[in-house]
Amino acid sequence: MVQAALAAGTASRRCVFELFGRRLPEGRRYGVVAGTGRVLDALEDFTFDPATLAFLEPLLDGPTLEHLAGWRFSGDVHGYAEGEVYTAGSPLMVVEGTFADAVVLETLLLSIYNHDSAIAAAASRMTMAAGGRPCIEMGARRTHEEAAVAAARAAYVAGFASTSVLAAGLRHGVPTAGTSAHAFTLLHDTEEDAFRAQVASQGAGTTLLVDTYDVAEAVRTAVAVAGPDLGAVRLDSGDLGATAAAVRAELDALGATGTRITVTSDLDEFAIAALAAAPVDGYGVGTQLVTGSGHPTCALVYKLVAREDADGVLQPVAKRSTGKTMVGGRKWARRRYDADGTAVAEVVGTGDAPPLGEHERDLLVPLVLGGEVVGREPLDAARERHARSRAELPIDAQKLSRGEPVLVTERV
Amino acid sequence: MVQAALAAGTASRRCVFELFGRRLPEGRRYGVVAGTGRVLDALEDFTFDPATLAFLEPLLDGPTLEHLAGWRFSGDVHGYAEGEVYTAGSPLMVVEGTFADAVVLETLLLSIYNHDSAIAAAASRMTMAAGGRPCIEMGARRTHEEAAVAAARAAYVAGFASTSVLAAGLRHGVPTAGTSAHAFTLLHDTEEDAFRAQVASQGAGTTLLVDTYDVAEAVRTAVAVAGPDLGAVRLDSGDLGATAAAVRAELDALGATGTRITVTSDLDEFAIAALAAAPVDGYGVGTQLVTGSGHPTCALVYKLVAREDADGVLQPVAKRSTGKTMVGGRKWARRRYDADGTAVAEVVGTGDAPPLGEHERDLLVPLVLGGEVVGREPLDAARERHARSRAELPIDAQKLSRGEPVLVTERV
């Protein structure tokens, strides 16, 4: 596309692309923006290096290779800030630049947003279902090795307390945590040997895995080895609610009243909610988190919504579609609240925005201006924003059942 | 775990870990091994660099940091060759080494295998449904940016003809292909301008996207611009079967009898099969491929199955489980055929394997010996192996409906 547009003289036309979803994944009440910080890092690093140009050489003509050799994105990006909730039709990113500049961002932006936002949306439902109990991200083994690091980051934005992926700690500053596996117990001649080895190395505050053989016996051994200050025990199988209750009673009887109980084993938001009344102190979540709990992608798209015509005038454009919501033109977007401060609508319009209403706030913030990243922020800022943004939603956002989006999209 | 085992003197115990799935994803008839080549590359690169060690420094003790600083995997890995089909209980990888060596591979091996094999399993169903028609991988925008490259590779192993991910061409030698987007048509003042620009740049053999405005008119314009030697047209919306029939008739009437029709638009194996009778020449598949068509992960696990005891004798070990198939001991595995050469069973055993039967073949091949990679092969070898291995399966493997695995697992 870039090569043909360069030759046709249209590559330099000023364009506006929009990143949005026509709808939320089926049944979901709200979406969660995640990946913004990763997009900004990737945009800064996005160049065509000599190895890439050598690979492209047989595919492209001379002027195109020359264009790419010196290319850096030099346009503007406005977008929803990371952690913000969104709904159908929310213009999550508005990218402005020449066609040649903006069109090559499509796969990069969509890949990061479709993945990270899918994980964050699932994570947000899980942390909501968990109430104040911490969720630990443990899904790295069930997804691509790099997606795992991004998933840990997105889960943290959506309220997870920590991750077992050390690389997410190294690269993104996500707090890390972990426990031992059954292999560690099986390695040793007895469960007691394994517990002694772990406590000697990690201290009594560690988390001992107690379901390799017999749970009740393992709990007795654990407290005998670590003492009543044992940090936690982990359950990874069986009926977690009933077992947690039995283990709590046993721990209390042994004087280990402060020892926490962490549960794992194919948890999702529904299983977490079902354990609300059980004496559980934390949830380790794996597969269902990193696969988006039924929705591994968000169906976000990147569409040209306006471009200069031959006279240099910016014109709205749109594909002719049946049944697809496709509105041309550069968008603005606001969240509208009712008098009680509950968010009720996403107001999306084109052209000049009217003055901001009393119960409204603007959603688009500058992320990149003239190719320079201006929207970078600490990951904790995104995490705090998500907590605030989610807290503003109507009470129906807390329903885990399938239903309609809680924010109505108003096009003006 | 490594730190505690080093201190306890158990880190050097010889161990056997096994990578396998307790079951196939629900309803699937067979699995497809993919990611083996990526695992071998990753194993060779797996060291703890100074930045990583600096990050780990506050978490680990001196002896552990020292151990990791010089660490390279020095054990053995045997496994199913890439592209091979598998079933429940197939020992896809058998890793032997010290505990400290083998335990740190868990996340790396499982991440790659759970992702790549999930994509390959979906891709195999799609290429089978497509019959001889080529499938093009186009899903990068709907998954993590690095997972996208691995997905393109896995899809190629399972019979896809090409990918739109140029990075998969650069890194893995997967053939690349692509078409233009609606944005390219919308960029230009008229559809004819867009087609002229594309044909001028790419030649008449290019693929023109004909559903931005009116399909029938676009097809007329396309042939008028490119001539009857136009390579292909792409349809990305509407009723693909009916539209393809109308476009085929129109192309033939215009003399463009050799122009192919490529269809895209949320295809999965079922939609591909439903188009079998339509005049379609190729399928572009995106979202459903990169998300594993309902099964984004394979639920493969990595378990300790044997380890030295205090006397240096290798002992089978297994967690005590209810309802989980968990067999201790180092496995061997063979595929058994009936007299007609149809594969019927996976024979999995422990201990010394009996002599190979007339209608059997061994499935485990050496991949890494003493830390040295010995199982590397060209990607096309894996692709050809998959085609052969799939062709041996019973006819029920071709059913897209949910059902039982076609290979029975026999434990001996």
From TrEMBL, chains A, B:
Involved pathway(s): Cofactor biosynthesis; NAD(+) biosynthesis; nicotinate D-ribonucleotide from nicotinate: step 1/1
Cited Gene3D superfamilies: Aldolase class I (3.20.20.70), nicotinate phosphoribosyltransferase (3.20.140.10)
Q: Show the catalytic activity.
A: 5-phospho-alpha-D-ribose 1-diphosphate + nicotinate + ATP + H2O = nicotinate beta-D-ribonucleotide + ADP + phosphate + diphosphate
GO biological process entries: NAD+ biosynthetic process via the salvage pathway
- Nicotinate phosphoribosyltransferase N-terminal domain span: 1-113
Q: Keyword Glycosyltransferase: yes or no?
A: yes
Q: Which family does it belong to?
A: Belongs to the NAPRTase family.
Its recorded name reads: Nicotinate phosphoribosyltransferase
What is the species of this protein? Nocardioides bruguierae
Source taxonomy lineage?
Bacteria, Bacillati, Actinomycetota, Actinomycetes, Propionibacteriales
